[in-house]
Specification:
single chain, 205 residues, Rossmann fold, 7-stranded mixed beta sheet, two-stranded antiparallel sheet, 8 helices, 9 strands, 24% strand
Length: 205
């Protein structure tokens, strides 16, 4: 009888060992990375002011700065912010009839030594519970006018997929000894949530 019980226990342990862990869902971001980024051809990138399609116009600079910090951490290229005149609209400066303005790209290359320009659009934002941020990014070569990298996502803490990724992000970045429930700080701090979202976007570089 004892032998039978041991065998049964061993079988159950074996089954438990064979069971696969549930799949880890990625953050809700779609991205593209071209050969120019892969080869390291882009060494200097101008980051233009972001367009803002939300009811929070003051957040455009905050998102751009947070993303700039995360992009720099990736170490793929030197990135620097480029300011526009107060009366200039980022959307009109970047595009004409839906296409990136070639004269702008040429000027960035000539005057600033930029190999590429990073354009961004904030498509959704809310600092209130549950926070959310939607961003569309395009890195455009000043030499070819082609998109070398793009990323687009809506990170919404009302969705389980995003909250699970927030927990994973907190485990990856939190100092040792913290509580597992401390990830909720990302929910209550707009700045922390912003850093989380921008890190996830920049991670696709």
């Amino acid at each position: 009888m004892r032998t039978t019980r041991l065998a049964l226990a061993g079988a159950l342990l074996a089954l438990g060992g064979c069971a696969s862990a549930p799949p880890v869902s990625a953050p809700p971001i779609t991205s593209y990375r071209g050969v120019e980024v892969e080869r390291g051809d882009l060494r200097r990138v101008a980051v233009l002011p972001f367009q803002n399609e939300t009811a929070f116009p003051e957040e455009a600079d905050a998102v751009a700065e947070a993303l700039l910090d995360e992009v720099r951490k990736r170490g793929r290229f030197e990135a620097f912010p480029l300011r526009l005149r107060e009366e200039e609209d980022p959307g009109e400066v970047a595009r004409r009839r839906g296409e990136f303005r070639k004269e702008l790209l040429m000027e960035l290359r000539r005057s600033h030594g930029a190999d590429a320009a990073l354009f961004g659009v904030i498509t959704a934002y809310s600092p209130y519970l549950p926070p959310r941020l939607g961003v569309k990014l395009e890195l455009v070569s000043t030499l070819t006018g082609e998109v070398a990298w793009s990323a687009e996502g809506l990170l919404d803490a009302a969705e389980a997929r995003t909250t699970e990724d927030m927990k994973r992000y907190y485990r990856e970045s939190a100092p040792p000894g913290g509580s597992l429930y401390d990830w909720q700080l990302l929910l209550y701090s707009p700045q922390r949530f912003l850093r989380y979202a921008c890190q996830r976007l920049a991670a696709t570089l």
